[in-house]
């Protein structure tokens, strides 16, 4: 397949592009600057433009671009940027694909488990309704923005990604290491949560966040990448698909597993009030719980390389 990818320089995109090429796909990267390489196509999600001539002939698009949920405090302005970067970018890609002739076969348009809101101990799958939190509203609008592609007869898949377990820190911003840990893709689906946590645990200063009883629905980076390939290639799949590992764990259990992998203690918790002081409104997402099952992937026969948090952590640590 000839595949175009937005967000190709991010944590997931930078792993996805070489993986797709390694299995034989021809990959083009959509960039916002003037193209400087033969595999680049220019687009401007703010202006709503894409170089349609360069995009002509693509079979599918993987759309990953969007402002980081945890890069800044949630001011009124940044909340709007979180929303508009996803909705505007998705609408731009969907309309461009609908305008092509022949039309691409598939749009894999990034989404997130933020759709479900705080589920507590209740397990949810793709049939569950949207929650009522800010990020639930964002994901609802984000997925709806792909409608022009679906209306044009293009197969549209929404991979609702959970917390990505990766051995690197893809998060930038002015906050502390603990705050950056909290940003690690739990709600946005973008970024590696365990990268910034690893040095803290190695120093013996890592521990649970808040009560630690909240569920983290995680996925290893290599399973995330392979699942995106799976969604591109499986013609029978459309709509929302949870990209999470088969066994969600509590945050305390995840940190304990990391401590065991590093042979370090994890006894210094970060209290809820400290998270609220450091993160403001975003702390509600960190202290919330999302127990999400990847039912569609499982039913479709997807084989996880890292079915447990321990395996995912070993894979992440092997890459550091």
Structural account:
With 320 residues, the chain is of the alpha/beta class. The protein has a single domain, classed as NAD(P)-binding Rossmann-like Domain (Rossmann fold), CATH 3.40.50.720. The protein has 13 helices and 15 strands. It has helices at residues 11-22, 52-55, 76-99, 134-144, 147-151, 177-182, 194-202, 221-233, 251-262, 272-279, 283-287, 295-299, 309-318, and strands at 2-6, 26-31, 40-44, 49-50, 60-63, 106-109, 111-112, 123-124, 155-161, 163-165, 215-216, 218-220, 239-243, 249-250, 291-292. The strands form 4 sheets. Strands 1, 2, 3, 4, 5, 6, 7, 9 and 13 form a 9-stranded mixed sheet that branches. The chain has a two-stranded parallel sheet with strand order 8-15. Helix 1 (11-22) links the parallel strand 1 and strand 2 (26-31). The radius of gyration is 19 Å and the shape is globular. Residues 169-191 have low confidence and may be disordered.
Topology at a glance:
Layout: E1 2-6, H1 11-22, E2 26-31, E3 40-44, E4 49-50, H2 52-55, E5 60-63, H3 76-99, E6 106-109, E7 111-112, E8 123-124, H4 134-144, H5 147-151, E9 155-161, E10 163-165, H6 177-182, H7 194-202, E11 215-216, E12 218-220, H8 221-233, E13 239-243, E14 249-250, H9 251-262, H10 272-279, H11 283-287, E15 291-292, H12 295-299, H13 309-318
Parallel strand pairs: 1-2, 1-5, 2-3, 5-6, 6-9, 7-9, 8-15, 9-13, 10-12
Antiparallel strand pairs: 3-4, 11-14
